[in-house]
Automatic annotation (TrEMBL):
Lineage top rank: taxon: Bacteria
TM segment ranges: none
PANTHER family on file: PADR-FAMILY TRANSCRIPTIONAL REGULATOR, TRANSCRIPTIONAL REGULATOR RV3488
Residue stretches making up the Transcription regulator PadR N-terminal domain: 16-87
Protein name: PadR family transcriptional regulator
Family annotation (InterPro entries): Metal_resp_DNA-bind_regulator, Tscrpt_reg_PadR_N, WH-like_DNA-bd_sf, WH_DNA-bd_sf
Amino acid sequence: MNSNQQLLKGSLSVIILKLLEEQERMYGYEITQKVKALTAGQMAITEGALYPALHKLEAEGLLTTETQVVEGRARKYYSLTKDGHSEAVSRISELGIMLENLQRLLTLKPAI
């Protein structure tokens, strides 16, 4: 697993919440493709990582699902619940603060 994959794994739930906050509803494959497109292929979410994360968020009451038949195939769409919206705002803010602090640490000049 490369470093991008490890970082992605730790922030996957936040990424899912953020995408659903902006898109309202998405299905699994659509989420993987959106992440790949937004990161110019630098980050890829595997189905093996995505679906357990989606199921965990659903079990936490943050997502709701709706199955719809599209072109003869059942497609499961995920949407944020009311709690999911407020949790998305909270987790996105927390991750943003952590990234700012990490950036500060990474740009420290060595002591002379």
